[in-house]
Amino acid sequence: MKFFIDTADINEIRDLAETGLVDGVTTNPSLIAKTGRDFITTVREIAGIVPGPVSAEVTATDHATMLKEGQKLARIARNIAVKVPLTRDGLKTCRRLSDDGVMVNVTLCFSAAQALLAAKAGASFVSPFVGRLDDVATDGMQLIQDIVQIYRQYPGIKTEVLVASVRGPLHVVAAAKMGAHVATLPPNVLRQMYAHPLTDKGLAAFLEDWKKTGQSILGAADGLGTEGGADKRAAE
Length: 236
Ligand code: E4P
Description:
This protein is an alpha/beta fold. The chain has two domains: 2-193, Aldolase class I (TIM Barrel), CATH 3.20.20; 197-235, no CATH class. 50% of the residues lie in helices and 16% in strands. The protein has twelve helices and eight strands. It has helices spanning 10-17, 29-35, 39-49, 63-74, 88-99, 112-120, 130-135, 140-152, 169-178, 187-194, 197-213, 230-235, and strands at 2-6, 24-26, 54-57, 80-85, 103-109, 125-128, 160-163, 182-185. An eight-stranded parallel barrel has the order 1-2-3-4-5-6-7-8, surrounded by seven helices. The mean pLDDT is 95. Erythose-4-phosphate binds next to helix 7.
């Protein structure tokens, strides 16, 4: 499963990308607004930090302007995925950009029927919003199950299911069990995924016991001290 980071915060992206765990980034107009920074500059910087897809969203609602915006965003870097809303004009724009070889992420997907159309329009990614469905007392993960199941019936569909509006590790684990291709995670959710109190407790106990041995791995001979080896050279 691929993990994207759902933020436009450059410092967060740098920090998490250093771990080698991040396959891409998703932004949206709200996340860009939160940074208070220039959109194009920010997206260009992000695309230079992560090699994988970086979603940048159009803000027009009519096809002609969406297309121009999408073409402009796609020129920022080779790894830009143009994000378009799941509307009639968004799907039309998706078809055109996809035909021109541009990656497209169709966002704001809330039904399996919409996801079918995103695939038909040649989207590289469809983004079903699980958290926002949960918020209105509808099972967001059921939508993921449905889309994954439907896409599997048609090997010709290359659209990847990108689980969005993720609220916690349980969403990610459930999505992975269902075989979703990607989850886009708010930075705190990625951190919650590796944090476990038993890991911290176990590590503290191991280190306490290790301290009693008085040993140091880096200070120790490496056992390769044969004729001409590192230990022998160090001793000379
Ligand atoms: C991702 O592409 C979406 O923009 C994002 O996951 C939305 O999440 P939210 O519902 O927490 O705003």
